[in-house]
Amino acid sequence: MPVKEGTERQVVLFVLCVCVCQSGAETLRYSLAEEMERDSFVANIAKDLGVSPSQLASRKARVVSEGNEQYFRLNLNTGVLTVKETLDREVICPQSDICTLFFKIFFENPVQLIRGEMEVRDVNDNSPVFPEKKMVLEILETASPGSRFPLERARDKDVGSNGLQNYSLGSNSHFSLALGTGKDGAKYAELVLQRQLDREQQREVNLLLSATDGGSPPRSGTAQVRIVVLDANDNIPVFSREVYEVRVAENSPPEQLVVRVAAADPDEGSYGRVRYAFTQTSERSRQLFELNAATGEIRVSGNLDFEETKKHKLVVRATDGGGLSAHCKVHVEVLDVNDNAPEIVLTSLTASIPEDAPPRTVVALFSVRDRDSGDNGRTECAIDGDLPFSLTPTFDNYYELRTNAALDRERTAEYNITITAMDWGRSRLSSRERIFVQISDVNDNPPEFTQDVYTISVKENNTPMLRIGKVNATDADAGKNSRVSYALVREKGKEQTDVSINSENGDVYILRPLDYEEVRAFEVTVRAADGGSPALSAEALLRVLLAPRSAEPGALVAKVVAVDADAGQNAWLSYELAKATEPGLFRVGLHSGEVRTARAVTERDAPRHRLVVLVRDRGQPPRSATATLAIALVDGFSEAHLRVSEEAPAADPDGRLTLYLIICLACVSVLFLATAAAAVFVKVRRARQSMAGSLPTFPKSAAESSAGSLPRSYVYDICFSAGTVNSEFRFLRPLFPCFPAGLPHGPGDQRSSVCSANLGEEVDWAAQVRDLRGPR
């Protein structure tokens, strides 16, 4: 605002007009003086719009200036619009007498735009300035009184009354000053010769030229004018045209010829030689065009910009060697070319929208600006690709990006939207803006089980908290909406089930041991619920089948070992099952002698079985022997089935000395028996070598064979669990051997049964079994 004498500087701010346009948007018009300090008060937007500051804050109001510079700031707490930075009208609007800044008040919730215009008033902060501090004029001494001589025009960046208003000339005896106004309204000054010059009396005249503006207080600038008096030259240069009008494209390269001005002087010699120069031409025009002083050619020397200045006015002065000059005007019109691509300015963006957002939901608000003119500045926008979004134009080249279809995050979780803005020029230019929109999840998908019915089998007599299986459900949603938890559905009137389920991973556990005879199957309902609000759920049926325990096919029962004193083929032995209570239940290894189950043991099988194993060699004729096994099917090994005492004898506190005496006596006896046995062995060996063949026999005791064979024709009482699947077994008490009728006996076999008279005698059968067990 202008500062007046006798009063303090103050900011005068008023609202010119608040109106409603046909488009439904309000327009606020304000005025402020340039050079106001930063954060100076401009207007109370809340008051002018009739809303409270809290409404401004809740609706996320903000001020948006057109272009790249933001000149104002809106305080949401007070509703006051302030200047963001100090404004300089001469910088913002260098070519315009009226400086208007356009801005918009933007509300996000709901979306609303209000136009605003701010007129920046000029203050007298610039003094008139001459382009040259010293001007030289050459005037013939023959110049007649009344001759006029144009002077360089002063420039004042201020406008209106603050601009250039008057010229004045220092006192002298030869010249006066004449003022004039050009068609463009600018004032200029000319020197008027009042009295004839006489070079012989005065070769030079020095004048002081002053330019004054209309500010309060006024500002002024000065320049020195040096008049050089020349000898007589009776012809002045004459231009072929007073005004040259030319057009040039804004993309013209440097050194391109614009126009050639020409002035003729009929004088001879130096008086007829003309030189050209710019006069009364703006500094900016002098930067964009250059003038050849000798030829009068005007060429491009800078980058022309139609959007900056559409027309340039040049004044060319032609001066001959005698100092006489003439002037012509050159009007250069800059033609627009499509050299500016559209600019996309994003005003508001919602980076994430829920997948249940209804169609026509606003996602973003942006504007498009093209600095070109005509069709070159006309733009259109489109979205690349087939996406569920559309563009809706609003006003002042603003567009809204909206959804135009239902969204589904499970199908597409995010969108990369490319907006293309293109102008209508002959060589169409375009620009692109990419907007990334993420679709947030909504709990719209219930969990889904991989199966409708889960069937799990478990064997009876299980251990408590045994994991028997797993159920699985998936949810297509994301985050907590996809977090599945499991639970059993409790039915009214029914007892608590014998199973439990892990709520996190769906593992199913048996709570207590079950008995196949009590319950053979049961069903429970499993519910899977997600973590959404409200939660969605699904149900599946869990069927538990109880299976009785039984030995699996191939379980090792026992191993029968036989030795043959022959050699070669006569000592090759093979085993077979000669007789069995249930032939299909057991089998014997042909070469290993291992007795294994041929099928799974069931409850329908007899509790006790009797097997007769036959072993024969490959001699001619073959010889054979048998062994009988007694097998009992039990649920587990217990004292009721183990006939052999496993208790160790009580230690005798005085037995250590007795043990030493027994060991000494045994050593002596063994040494004697060994000597006798060696003699007998030699005789027996010689007798056997003379015999042609012998029958295969079982050893009489486990000590007779280094291979660990069992006593010949022994009966084994074997017990194993119906669920045993490994090779563990235990021998019980030895039974009295009994050979079936009709089985052949070797010459060395004895019919009499050998058994222990003392049933309480402790026999380490388990140790013998471990010696007899072969590879599994």
TrEMBL record:
Q: Where are the transmembrane segments?
A: 659-682
**The protein, known as:** Protocadherin gamma-C3
Q: Which InterPro entries match?
A: Cadherin-like_dom (IPR002126), Cadherin-like_sf (IPR015919), Cadherin_C (IPR032455), Cadherin_CS (IPR020894), Cadherin_N (IPR013164), Protocadherin/Cadherin-CA (IPR050174)
User: Can you list the GO cellular component terms from the UniProt entry?
Assistant: plasma membrane
Where is each Cadherin domain found?
Answer: 28-130, 131-239, 240-344, 345-449, 450-555, 553-651
Q: Which domain of life is it from?
A: Eukaryota
In the record, biological process GO terms are:
homophilic cell adhesion via plasma membrane adhesion molecules
Task: List the coiled-coil residues.
Answer: none
- From the Swiss-Prot or TrEMBL record, state where the protein is found: Cell membrane
Query: Keywords of this protein's UniProt record, alphabetized?
Result: Calcium, Cell adhesion, Cell membrane, Glycoprotein, Membrane, Repeat, Signal, Transmembrane, Transmembrane helix
Q: Name one Pfam family in it.
A: Cadherin
- Annotated organism of origin: Anser cygnoides
Q: What is its main location?
A: membrane
PANTHER family per record? CADHERIN DOMAIN-CONTAINING PROTEIN, CADHERIN-87A
**What membrane topology does the UniProt entry give?**
Single-pass type I membrane protein
Q: Does the keyword Secreted apply?
A: no
Q: What one GO molecular function would you report for this record?
A: calcium ion binding
Give the signal sequence positions.
Answer: 1-25
Checking SMART domains in the record gives: CA
